[in-house]
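Internal tracking record. Fields below are filled automatically when a chain is submitted to the structure queue. Please do not edit lines marked as system-generated. If the sequence contains nonstandard residues, flag them in the REMARKS field before resubmitting.
Queue: standard
Priority: normal
Entity type: single polypeptide chain
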Amino acid sequence: MAFQGGCACKAVRYEVSADPMAVMNCHCRACQYASGGGYTTAVVVPRGTLTVTKGTPKSYASTGDSGGKVTRMFCGDCGSPLFSEPEAGPFQVVKAASMDDPGKLTVGGALYVSEAQPWAHIDPAKPAFEKMPPGAR
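SYSTEM-GENERATED OUTPUT FOLLOWS
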């Protein structure tokens, strides 16, 4: 399922040439800030399969829970969050709402439920992890 996406104003576009490795709702505070909501739906893709095809996203880097740097990319014109690049790890994380057709996704569970807001829904029928799943760092 290769896919494309971009920001609301169409200044930045990207394409991903691989199927997602996972789709999870992340409730960490960094994702709450980036999404402006209770969580972000994270589409995990293999590193190197995402290519920016139009424009140049702006970035913001912070230190993740693992101690490594996480760079979050967004449109400098409209502010739409697009994707994240953890310093370590074989993956990048696309923000589901930035995809042209996110309706085909199936969320597999929840991450960082220890930081979830009390009003955020966490599906009890799916796996939920206090932080990251074992072996995912």
